């Protein structure tokens, strides 16, 4: 049953939250287990919807997934992998985009894959053309079938020289998961190099893969015939950490984020400091806090790693509504990631979105009809309102805006937030937020 949050704003969030394994790594490491010929163990696994979806999909394909009741560690045994029915796959895929990454491992394990039409956050068109092109370059045959696509490789997957038109995270992972057991060498130019990708490479290396990452975005994979299992602790979720950091700033609070890692968040930390946020960086986490003075406006462009990550933009924009002056944010990764600003405007924020590129990062969306630059003038007092959560990061931004606002907000559609934020209502309660949860009528 879906729930409604009634939030009474104005309370600074203070205390401690623990962030566990990254949503953008854990499901993919689970998929990688399918490439092995023995069980794998994945540690630091968060309780989020995407993990449930991948668990069901793997189980449908004959993979045993056991969860340790105390630690939550997963043991994934792929030794009895088998074909699954298309209707069952479709029913279990939920609204996740992870199923597309099952292609390579399923072809290696059982010779074919069926991928249902995909979901995921509605933050742009989110096509899968790079994925399908990559699979074809490995020799796969891709056929459209009712409700999804069928992929097979009658001759097996063969290594290839591939160049991505854009450093897509998912397409890079597609190449890694397909190439490690393909015959021969694969060279991928224009790869994404996000920390989650490097962690996936670490998982695959533990399994026996031979992968090198060069400094010019080229990844080279020497295919091996068999892979074993892995035992791996997932890297921490830097997107969740950045979200709590922004929550501290927006609500004038003070939050210690246990598990936040400096190394993977350097670009965010530089920006946070420029806005005027306080931080104490420790070995096991980072304390983020409002320093009491004014916040500074800034000019920001999202980009692939090591740039400012697109998933950090939305919560930070809420903080920029409280900065003294005009800020500009140019979104260059997704063409349609400012829909969430509508609710902020209704709450009193002063934000205009523009079609023009207001920045200098080469962007695919300029001179087209995409509202992908935002101008934010602050500071503005936010007031509570009714909000229906549009997507994961936009939804979290709405929550923190409501927590900072005067008055009461009624937030529906909060289940989307469970896709990427583990036990977020418990965490909010622990930080002193004033809210109730009730069932939606
Ligand atoms: N793109 C294409 N064709 C493709 C694939 C991607 O045109 O076949 C485009 C996308 O439409 C987008 C750009 O390339 O404009 C980048 O997409 P990318 O493939 O890098 O994104 P993704 O793999 O689908 C992951 C994360 C996103 C995160 C992006 C960028 C997961 C499950 N999702 O998505 O996370 O924003 O990389 O870093 O890993 C989130 O956590 O809220 C989230 C959306």
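Q: What amino acid sequence fits the structure above?
A:
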């Amino acid at each position: 049953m879906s729930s409604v949050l009634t939030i009474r704003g104005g309370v600074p969030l203070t205390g401690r939250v623990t962030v566990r394994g990254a949503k953008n790594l854990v499901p993919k490491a689970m998929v990688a287990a399918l490439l092995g010929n023995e069980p794998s163990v994945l540690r630091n696994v968060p309780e989020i919807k995407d993990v449930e979806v991948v668990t069901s999909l793997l189980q449908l394909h004959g993979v045993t997934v056991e969860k340790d009741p105390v630690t939550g560690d997963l043991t994934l045994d792929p030794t009895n992998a088998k074909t699954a029915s298309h209707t069952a796959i479709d029913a279990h895929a939920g609204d996740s985009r992870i199923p597309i990454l099952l292609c390579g491992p399923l072809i290696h394990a059982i010779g074919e894959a069926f991928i249902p039409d995909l979901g995921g956050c509605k933050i742009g068109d989110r096509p899968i053309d790079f994925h399908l092109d990559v699979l074809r370059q490995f020799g796969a045959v891709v056929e459209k079938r009712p409700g999804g696509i069928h992929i097979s490789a009658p001759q097996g997957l063969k290594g290839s020289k591939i160049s991505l038109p854009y450093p897509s995270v998912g397409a890079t992972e597609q190449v890694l998961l397909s190439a490690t057991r393909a015959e021969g060498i694969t060279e991928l130019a224009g790869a994404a190099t996000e920390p989650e990708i490097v962690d996936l490479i670490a998982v695959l290396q533990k399994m026996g893969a031979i992968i090198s990452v060069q400094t010019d975005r080229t990844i080279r994979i020497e295919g091996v015939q068999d892979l074993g299992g892995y035992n791996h602790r997932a890297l921490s979720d830097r997107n969740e950490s950045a979200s709590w950091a922004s929550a501290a700033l927006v609500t004038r609070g003070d939050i210690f984020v246990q598990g936040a890692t400096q190394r993977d968040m350097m670009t965010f930390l530089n920006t946070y400091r420029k806005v005027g946020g306080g931080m104490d960086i420790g070995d096991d986490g980072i304390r983020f806090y409002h320093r009491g003075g004014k916040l500074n406006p800034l000019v920001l462009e999202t980009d692939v790693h090591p740039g400012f990550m697109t998933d950090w933009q939305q919560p930070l924009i809420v903080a920029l509504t409280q900065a003294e002056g005009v800020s500009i944010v140019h979104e260059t990764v997704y063409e349609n990631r400012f829909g969430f600003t509508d609710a902020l405007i209704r709450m009193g924020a002063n934000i205009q979105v523009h079609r023009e590129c207001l920045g200098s990062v080469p962007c695919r969306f300029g001179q087209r009809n995409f509202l992908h630059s935002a101008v934010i003038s602050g500071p503005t007092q936010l007031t509570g309102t009714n909000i229906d959560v549009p997507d994961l990061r936009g939804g979290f931004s709405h929550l923190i805006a409501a927590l900072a606002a005067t008055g009461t907000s009624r937030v529906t559609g909060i289940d989307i937030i469970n896709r990427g934020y583990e036990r977020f209502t418990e965490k909010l309660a622990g930080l002193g937020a004033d809210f109730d949860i009730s069932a939606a009528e």
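Q: And what stands out in the fold?
A: The chain has two domains: 3-19+236-439, 26-233.
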